[in-house]
Structures are given as structure tokens and as C-alpha cells.
Write a sequence for this structure.
């Protein structure tokens, strides 16, 4: 496989195997910069190696020939090469500092490009904001990348020309000074000068490769940095069949983000999520609901405690297998334009039924598993995502503020018909919601505050099984 492709495939594999928390920390802009810039720079650097080998071998042979012709000239030429190489170290170092600065600006440039692409609407509406953004961010980073790379190249190129000068100085010294003190035949002198002229070419090729090698070296460090900051999950990639389960048990679960200054700690959390039940997780902004949902969906690796799907306690052997129990629509969900996976014609027909039920029948059609469009309103996109999760037919559904973008009709449909229908299929459902109008459809309402469960209300039925009420259990912090 081509080297560039191989490097990229390695990075893709690392991304898919890395914990979401590490990907969040590295950031998508940095990853894009590495995939688009560093990989090709490293490969360009590596491509100079055959030339370097050929030039080095030529140099060794020509020096050998020079040694055979005249040992003293050989010593002079070798000393000149050594002197040239040593005096080359300083400009090379300064040049590489500029390349490094330029490379760091590429990360910032990618962040700015993302802001330009995603913030176009906001920038268009406010001229001052737009000008400030272009001057202080986008163009600033663009020109800094250019200027730093230019400065680095100018310094190293000047050093290369200085290297050429040294080789001509050596030739001049031998032709005009050396022969005055060391008698040498004309044939020998022309052979020596020819050899010295031939030395100049491989030396200059070796020096010319240095800027590319320097850039490649900096990019290689950036790639290694990505690999160091994206640890591979230790979990087995093999999907094994697990025992069936009725209750998802969270015990003493703890997770935290950030440093000691801006740390947010979740837990300890003790909670049971049952199949055939709808569990609402509610609470104020920043109380930890979404964080808990990402720990439950096995995206954030919990630091303490345990998660068990029935008797299957999550561990490295079954983590990926346990993930296959879950289907989730997070607030930052991604909608693929294709149904990924192998689905039978019957399943695809069912999917079309879901589209109709969700009011998308005349908006989205599907051909060869590709949606006719995903240029939809936010609410429609979420409905399409919901249809996809139905098709996945998993055992645990997690909906993080799914209904937030829905109009009253679809909100009502979601809470009063869709959720009960999923529940009746024997699934476990976790709904993160601020829609207190619909809390009564929940079998269990878990209220969170500052990363902890404040209370759990459970729906109890009277002896006559006719009326239902919520019984609240307050959990001691
Ligand atoms: N990637 C992250 N890195 C560091 N801190 C984070 C990260 N994501 C969330 N937090 C912090 O964790 C806390 C809980 O956030 P979370 O998104 O879980 O709250 P939430 O209850 O879902 O809020 P909301 O109702 O606003 O969606 C917040 O204080 C937030 O600042």
C-alpha cells in the first residue's frame, strides 16, 4: 500500500479505537491538520531517502577515489565537508525552529477554518465581527504559517548556497594554493579537480534534502504526539455473544473531567435501569446528565465502580460486545447519509414505514441504502436519526434531549406513543429531558444535581392497578 494511505489508515484505526474522551481532548481540528498536512510531509521527507542513499554512496566512492589520487587533498576535502556540516547545524536549527512555529500555526489555522465553515452565518451578519475574525484569527494564522515556512526555507537555502561556496573554495584552494606547495602532475591535478567537482553534486543533494527532512521530522513528532494522546482502548475488538439481561446496574460509578481547577466529577452513581421501563434523567444545566449518558453508553471510561448488563459485568473482553446492546441519539449526534450495514429487503421496507410514521415519508426516500437528502431541518434530522435507531433494534435506547427540536405534535408523538411503543417491545429506555410536562410517562425519574443523583422517583401502581403515582426516594449525597 502507498505510504501516505498506510499512514492515514493507521490514524483512522487509532481514532476509531481511541476513547471518546481522548478524541475530545485532542480536538477534531488537530486531527484534521495531522491527517491532511503531517502525513504528506512525512511521506515527502521519506521520499528523499533513496536520493540520500545514492548521494551518500557517490560521496563515499568519490572520496575514496580522491584518497587514491592524493591523500592530502582527500584530508582537505574531508575537513572542508566536516567544517561545512558543523557550520550548517546552526542555520539548520534556526530554520527548523521556524518550521516548528509554522507547524503549530497549522493547528490554529484548522481551528479557524472550522470556525469559518461553521460560523459563516454569524460572521456574515456582523461586519466588525467578520473583520476581527479574519484579521486576528484566520488570516493571521494563514500568514504566520506562510511566513514561518518561508523564513525557515530562506535560512536553510542560504546555508545550502554557503555549502556550495565552501566546495568551490576547496577547489580554488587546491588549484591555486595547494599546488604551489605540493608538486602534482597536470593529469593528477585535473583528476583531483574533476573529483572535487563531482563531490559538490552529492553534497549539495544531501544538503537540499535537509529542509524537507526537517519538516518531515516536525510532522512525524506531531503524528507521534497524536498517537501518544490517543491511547488505544484495551478492549477486545471481537464481538462475543453475551447472556441476556433485564437490568442494567450502575454501582459506585465515578467519572471526572478536567484539571483540579475546573474539574467536574460525576458520581458515585448507583442506579438500576430496567427493561420494559422508561427512565427519565432530569436536572439543571450542567448537572451531569449527558456525561452520565456517555458513561452508560460506554464512551467515557469510568474511573471507579462497575456497569453490568444483567450478569455481564463490563470488562475489557466484553466492552465492545456490550456496546452492541445500545443505540443512542446524543445532542451532538451525527447523521450519516447512508444506512450503514446489511439490511434485508423486509427491514428496508420496515424502515420506510418508520419514515412515514415520523412524518418524513414525502421528504426522504431511500435508494441503494442512500437517503435522497439529509438537507433537513434540525427536527427532521433527529426524526431520521430516530428511524435509523429503530432499524438497529437494540436493547437499550438513550435519547439525550431528543425532543428539544421537535414541534408540539412530534413532541407529543415521541413521549406518548413512540416511547411507550419501544417500552412495550421490552426495551430499556433512558430519556434525558427538560420537558417536565411529560415526566409522568416515566416509570422512574432520576434527578441529578452537581454530578450526583439527588432523587429517584418511581411510578407505583395502586392495588387496583388503575391509578399511577410517582413515589420519590431522595438519595443522600
Ligand atoms: N468535554 C468536557 N470536558 C470538560 N468538562 C466538560 C466536558 N463536557 C462537559 N463538561 C462539564 O461537565 C459538566 C456537566 O456537563 P453535562 O453536559 O453532563 O451537563 P448536562 O446535565 O447534560 O447539562 P445540559 O442540561 O445543559 O445539557 C458541566 O459543568 C461541563 O462544564
Amino acid at each position: 500500500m502507498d505510504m501516505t494511505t498506510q499512514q492515514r489508515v493507521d490514524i483512522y484505526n487509532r481514532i476509531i479505537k481511541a476513547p471518546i474522551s481522548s478524541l475530545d481532548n485532542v480536538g477534531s481540528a488537530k486531527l484534521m491538520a495531522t491527517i491532511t498536512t503531517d502525513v504528506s510531509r512525512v511521506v515527502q521527507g521519506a521520499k528523499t531517502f533513496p536520493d540520500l542513499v545514492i548521494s551518500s554512496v557517490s560521496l563515499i566512492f568519490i572520496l575514496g577515489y580522491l584518497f587514491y589520487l592524493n591523500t592530502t587533498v582527500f584530508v582537505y576535502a574531508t575537513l572542508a565537508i566536516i567544517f561545512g556540516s558543523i557550520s550548517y547545524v546552526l542555520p539548520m536549527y534556526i530554520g527548523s525552529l521556524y518550521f516548528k512555529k509554522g507547524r503549530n500555526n497549522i493547528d490554529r489555522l484548522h481551528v479557524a477554518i472550522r470556525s469559518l465553515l461553521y460560523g459563516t452565518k454569524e460572521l456574515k451578519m456582523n461586519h466588525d465581527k467578520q473583520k476581527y475574525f479574519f484579521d486576528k484569527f484566520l488570516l493571521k494564522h494563514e500568514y504566520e504559517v506562510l511566513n514561518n515556512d518561508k523564513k525557515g526555507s530562506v535560512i536553510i537555502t542560504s546555508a545550502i548556497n554557503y555549502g556550495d561556496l565552501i566546495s568551490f573554495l576547496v577547489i580554488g584552494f587546491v588549484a591555486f594554493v595547494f599546488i604551489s606547495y605540493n608538486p602534482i602532475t597536470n593529469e593528477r591535478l585535473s583528476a583531483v579537480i574533476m573529483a572535487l567537482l563531482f563531490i559538490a553534486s552529492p553534497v549539495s543533494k544531501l544538503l537540499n534534502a535537509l529542509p524537507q527532512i526537517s519538516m518531515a521530522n516536525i510532522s512525524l513528532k506531531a503524528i507521534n504526539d497524536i498517537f501518544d494522546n490517543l491511547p488505544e482502548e484495551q478492549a477486545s475488538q471481537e464481538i462475543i455473544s453475551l447472556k441476556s439481561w433485564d437490568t442494567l446496574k450502575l454501582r459506585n460509578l465515578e467519572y471526572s473531567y478536567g484539571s483540579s481547577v475546573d474539574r467536574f466529577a460525576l458520581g458515585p452513581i448507583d442506579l438500576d435501569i430496567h427493561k420494559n421501563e422508561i427512565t427519565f434523567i432530569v436536572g439543571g444545566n450542567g448537572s451531569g446528565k449527558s456525561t452520565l449518558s456517555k458513561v452508560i453508553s460506554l464512551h467515557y471510561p469510568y474511573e471507579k465502580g462497575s456497569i453490568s448488563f444483567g450478569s455481564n459485568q463490563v470488562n475489557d473482553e466484553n466492552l465492545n460486545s456490550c456496546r452492541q446492546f445500545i443505540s443512542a441519539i446524543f445532542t451532538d449526534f451525527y447523521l450519516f447519509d447512508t444506512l450503514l450495514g446489511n439490511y434485508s429487503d423486509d427491514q428496508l421496507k420496515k424502515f420506510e414505514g418508520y419514515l412515514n410514521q415520523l412524518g418524513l415519508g414525502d421528504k426522504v426516500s431511500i435508494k441503494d441504502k442512500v437517503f435522497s437528502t439529509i438537507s433537513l431541518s434540525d427536527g427532521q434530522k433527529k426524526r431520521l436519526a430516530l428511524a435509523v435507531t429503530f432499524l438497529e433494534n437494540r436493547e437499550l435506547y438513550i435519547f439525550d434531549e431528543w425532543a428539544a427540536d421537535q414541534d408540539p405534535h412530534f413532541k407529543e408523538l415521541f413521549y406518548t406513543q413512540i416511547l411507550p411503543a419501544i417500552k412495550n417491545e421490552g426495551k430499556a429506555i433512558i430519556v434525558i429531558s427538560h420537558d417536565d410536562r411529560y415526566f409522568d410517562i416515566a416509570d422512574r425519574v432520576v434527578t441529578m444535581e452537581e454530578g450526583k443523583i439527588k432523587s429517584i422517583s418511581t411510578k407505583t401502581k395502586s392495588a387496583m392497578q388503575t391509578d399511577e403515582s410517582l413515589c420519590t426516594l431522595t438519595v443522600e449525597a
About this structure: The radius of gyration is 33 Å.
